[in-house]
Amino acid sequence: MKPWILGLTGGIGSGKSAAAAHFASLGVHTVDADHAARWVVEPGRPALASIVERFGESMLQADGTLNRAALRERIFQSPEERRWLELLLHPLIGQEIAANLEQAQSPYAILVSPLLVESGQRQMTKRILVVDTPEHLQLERTMRRDSVPEEQVRAILKAQAQRDERLKHADEVLLNDSDLGHLQREVERLHDFYLNLRGGRP
């Protein structure tokens, strides 16, 4: 029987990567949408050629990889250019994710995506697990992890789906307001629950 797909999401600094890593250590096939997004613009992939054709050689680093900072700057200034890029990349990222999920051998598989709700990727999933963290902890953790100023983290929080919007779509919520041990115990509890679901439904 094909594994059913669990969507795992959460805001920046919520601990979704740590949760995903623990699910993976329990033998669950996990696919990270961010990795797929990076992979579709690797050198030699058609998307990178299209980006350079549209925006010019300044989109490439000296080693032939995508100059993300230049691209980000370009699309932030122009909503049409951003739309063009999304139309190019979203279907490719979707195909990449689907191909990777196809390889899953575990009873269920996980799609990890910070933009699960906004990007429409939730259509690929049967259930959604939101890793939720109080905002002051998100700020603290992200500033510590990425050594970035508070304003920058607040700007990212604003751009991501609002917490209420994410929680509205959640089938389960993992409240990550304690330490890593607590997070891992919660993951194990949910894993047992998910193993008993047929096709993602109780």
The helix tally amounts to 9
Distance between the termini: 17 Å
Biggest sheet features: 5 strands, parallel
Overall radius of gyration: 18 Å
| CATH level-1 class of the largest domain | Alpha Beta
What are the low-pLDDT stretches, counting only 5+ consecutive residues below 50?
none
Element order, helices and strands?
EHEHHHHEEHHHEH
General form: globular
> Under the CATH scheme, which architecture of the largest domain would be assigned?
3-Layer(aba) Sandwich
- The helicity comes to 40-55%
Number of spatially distinct domains? 2
CATH third-tier fold name of the largest domain: Rossmann fold
* Beta fraction: 5-15%
Structural class by helix and strand composition: alpha/beta
- The CATH superfamily of the largest domain bears the name P-loop containing nucleotide triphosphate hydrolases
Number of strands: 5
What value does the average pLDDT take? 91
Biggest β-sheet: strands ordered side by side in the sheet: 2-3-1-4-5
